[in-house]
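[recover] target loaded
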């Protein structure tokens, strides 16, 4: 099929080149010669028509000359001269007035004195009734004497002759003038037409129309009259009518004064022009026939000697490519040039050698591919897998993939991914720009799930017919290389699970008191506190909200200790409680049933079992506290007794020291958050410089600050989840790709400050106001400082999605509640794109008597 298209393209291209290089130049020259000759012939015909028109005009004017002799004879008459002197009108009437009756060529006559006063007239010409109305006659009689010409009279166009009246010898001074005229008629035009061999037509300004039988109609002359009246020019047309060219020439008709009085139109057939044009056309037809014959002859010879042998040659090559043997040279090739015959013989020999080599190498390559533990297959623009593939493909798919659609092989049960890879590959084949093809190619998946197996997949453009690897501009076929990664991924998952367990063990071993506290608190919560809260008088929604906040804090505490199993349970419980908080029909008994069904007592079993399996007996020692543990009430009772009984000054000094016995360095409560920041940054893809707690040796009351320190996990988590930007975003904003978080406990004269700062994206007060407004809060006139305090409002979060780390809108409200119980306050300063600073201030009264102790 491809061979046929190429063969037709070659023949078409060959024909096009012959037309472009031979036929079209010759035809163009012939057409140019024809039109150039015709234009030259037209100019010659125009000159002939113009000469004929001038001859016709002159012949009409010469009609006046034909009556000039008669006019002179009667004017050069002594009796006539004497009659004018005496004003003998009777003599003039008898001898001059009867001229139109006696002389056939004269249609009117008039005699006047030299001032133009008419003495006698015959023929009823209004312009010659009492006074000569033609100034040109008076001017020319004085200058020229006798003359003739054309005048437009009241009776029509006329040839006029004028002679002075004198004696027979012309020696006497003229006493007057004799004017005679001959009216122009159709018969006169007919005689002129016979003489000049042309049809004549005249149309005057006065509307007089004269024409020979073959002349122009009056309606046809009317536009020409208007045209020539404006410019006194001419008009020439050469048209073909009934096989013969007709020359039509129109010119202005001028009277003896040179004024335009009408249009004179002549037309005559041009046999010579017709014959010349017909000869040119005949020559062109002969030339076209000769060229067509030459083209056919050339095409026949090319087809016979070159095209057919090459076609057979190409067909034989295709047969060779298909694996067929060629034993003899076809007839068409034998009739070709000797070089083609020799090349064909050489190909037959090469084909035999190539078949043997290909068979041997194909077997070797297939053996290599089948034992490479990789699946190799290829496909074209139709995305159908070709027949060649390795044995590993059968093992991966469970069947032979040949003839199947690649998207259906990779994603048989995932319509979205199936359509996505189909669109990517379709766009790749449709795109022509190399850069765009490369970008589209990079979107192809790198790993796929085939049944229960995981396979790495690599796409590579196949080699083209020339043996050179196809680039992104020309590649059409693609090879897919599949590598079974199932065992590798299972091993990676196992290693990842072991790493997570190891992190949990390290966190537990390094923070045994936190482990003991959170386990004790969680057990107290799900066995006692939760049920006491459910039995209170609050509404069901309020109970759900209180339990919701406690669950959120427990989730943060267990996440800090890297517990793997209980955190997802707590996260799911949060979602369920959130739905019930928003349910106005929620009843306490339904909430109680829901919580009882959770079986929270079993949530810690998997994590505790992992710790026991690794730590063994050491796990129980982590939960054992040496010494005696007093609660706050018991310690306060002892302090009160000592305050009352010890009054001496030396006793007061000892009592002051006694107060510090239960204090611990602040680092014991807050230092673990430095490691938690680093771990959380790794999980969320954020880069951080190492975080160090400054002022960790400041002593604090651990019982009093336990709740605040435990809730502080929300502040730490928000810094990573909301504050620090991803590396790409930081680089785009001109920042170091590693974020900075500083954490310090400072002792002031009247207070202790816990300062937590980051150089992240900052907090947007406007976004907080908008979020609050969406939840029905009145933000009119709210300042930026007031808006920043909204982050501590319960259920107000700017996160768009709920995740394991954010989106509930609860965390910071818990921090605020704990700080309020301590009588503390919070200061926030932030700059968009620069970062945020939190300062938690604890009143000095809560720290009276504290001193520096070992960290």
């Amino acid at each position: 099929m491809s061979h046929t298209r190429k063969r037709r393209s070659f023949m078409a291209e060959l024909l096009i080149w012959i037309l472009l290089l031979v036929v079209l130049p010759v035809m163009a020259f012939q057409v140019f010669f024809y039109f150039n000759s015709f234009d030259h012939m037209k100019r010659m015909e125009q000159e002939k028509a113009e000469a004929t028109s001038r001859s016709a005009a002159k012949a009409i004017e010469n009609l006046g000359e034909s009556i000039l002799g008669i006019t002179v004879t009667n004017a050069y008459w002594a009796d006539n001269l004497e009659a004018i002197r005496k004003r003998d009108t009777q003599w003039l009437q008898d001898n001059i007035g009867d001229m139109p009756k006696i002389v056939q060529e004269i249609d009117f006559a008039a005699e006047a004195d030299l001032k133009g006063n008419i003495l006698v007239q015959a023929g009823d010409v209004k312009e010659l009734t009492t006074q000569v109305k033609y100034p040109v006659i008076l001017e020319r009689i004085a200058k020229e004497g006798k003359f003739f010409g054309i005048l437009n009279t009241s009776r029509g166009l006329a040839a006029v002759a004028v002679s002075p009246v004198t004696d027979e010898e012309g020696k006497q001074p003229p006493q007057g003038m004799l004017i005679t005229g001959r009216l122009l008629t159709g018969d006169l035009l007919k005689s002129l037409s016979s003489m000049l061999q042309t049809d004549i037509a005249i149309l005057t300004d006065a509307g007089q129309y004269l024409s020979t039988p073959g002349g122009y109609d009056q309606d046809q002359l009317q536009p020409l009259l208007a045209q020539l009246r404006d410019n006194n020019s001419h008009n020439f047309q050469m048209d073909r009518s009934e096989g013969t060219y007709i020359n039509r020439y129109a010119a202005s008709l001028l009277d003896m004064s040179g004024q335009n009085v009408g249009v004179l139109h002549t037309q005559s057939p041009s046999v010579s022009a017709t014959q010349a044009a017909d000869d040119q056309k005949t020559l062109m037809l002969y030339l076209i026939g000769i060229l067509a014959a030459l083209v056919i002859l050339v095409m026949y010879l090319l087809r016979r000697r070159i095209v057919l042998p090459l076609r057979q040659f190409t067909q034989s090559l295709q047969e060779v490519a298909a694996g067929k043997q060629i034993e003899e040279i076809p007839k068409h090739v034998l009739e070709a040039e000797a070089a083609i015959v020799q090349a064909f013989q050489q190909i037959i020999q090469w084909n035999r050698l190539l078949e043997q080599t290909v068979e041997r190498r194909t077997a070797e390559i297939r053996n290599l591919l089948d034992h490479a533990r990789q699946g190799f297959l290829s496909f074209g623009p139709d995305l159908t897998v070709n027949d060649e593939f390795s044995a590993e493909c059968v093992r991966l798919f469970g069947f032979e993939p040949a003839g199947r659609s690649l998207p259906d092989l990779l994603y048989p049960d995932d319509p979205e991914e199936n359509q996505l890879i189909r669109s990517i590959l379709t766009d790749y084949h449709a795109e022509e720009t190399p850069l765009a093809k490369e970008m589209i190619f990079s979107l192809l998946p790198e790993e796929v799930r085939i049944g229960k197996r995981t396979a790495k997949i690599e796409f590579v453009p196949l080699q083209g017919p020339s043996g050179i690897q196809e680039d992104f501009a020309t590649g059409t076929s693609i090879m897919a290389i599949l590598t079974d990664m199932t065992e590798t991924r299972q091993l990676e998952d196992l290693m990842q699970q072991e790493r997570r367990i190891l992190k949990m063990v390290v966190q537990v071993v390094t923070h045994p008191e936190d482990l003991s506290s959170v386990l004790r608190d969680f057990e107290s919560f799900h066995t006692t506190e939760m049920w006491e809260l459910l039995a209170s008088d609050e509404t069901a929604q309020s109970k759900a909200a209180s339990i919701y906040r406690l669950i959120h804090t427990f989730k943060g505490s267990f996440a800090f200790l890297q517990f793997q199993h209980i955190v997802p349970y707590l996260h799911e419980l949060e979602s369920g409680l959130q739905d019930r908080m928003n349910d106005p029909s929620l009843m306490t008994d339904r909430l109680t049933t829901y919580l009882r069904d959770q079986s929270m007592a079993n949530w810690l079993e998997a994590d505790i079992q992992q710790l026991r399996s690794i730590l063994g007996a050491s796990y129980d020692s982590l939960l054992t506290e040496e010494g005696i543990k007093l609660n706050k009430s018991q310690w306060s009772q002892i302090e009160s007794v000592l305050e009352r009984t010890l009054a001496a000054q030396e006793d007061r000094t000892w009592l002051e020291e006694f107060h510090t016995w239960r204090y611990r360095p602040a680092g014991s409560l807050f230092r673990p958050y430095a490691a938690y920041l680093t771990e959380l940054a790794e999980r969320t893809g954020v880069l951080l410089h190492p975080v160090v707690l400054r002022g960790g040796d400041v002593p604090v009351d651990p019982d009093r600050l336990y709740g605040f320190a435990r809730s502080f996990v929300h502040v730490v988590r928000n810094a990573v989840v909301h504050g620090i930007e991803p590396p790409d975003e930081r680089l785009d904003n001109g920042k170091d790709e590693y974020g900075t978080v500083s954490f310090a406990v400072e002792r002031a004269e009247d207070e202790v400050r816990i300062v937590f700062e980051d150089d992240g994206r900052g907090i947007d007060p406007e976004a907080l106001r908008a979020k609050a407004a969406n939840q029905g809060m009145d933000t009119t006139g709210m300042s930026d400082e007031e808006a920043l305090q909204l982050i501590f409002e319960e259920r107000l979060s700017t996160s768009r999605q709920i995740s394991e780390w954010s989106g509930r809108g609860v965390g910071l409200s818990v921090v605020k509640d704990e700080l309020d119980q301590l009588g503390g306050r919070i200061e926030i300063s932030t700059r968009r794109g620069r970062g945020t600073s939190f300062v938690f201030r604890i009143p000095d009264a809560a720290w009276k008597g504290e001193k520096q102790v070992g960290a």
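[recover] notes: Residues 2-75 form the longest helix (74 residues).
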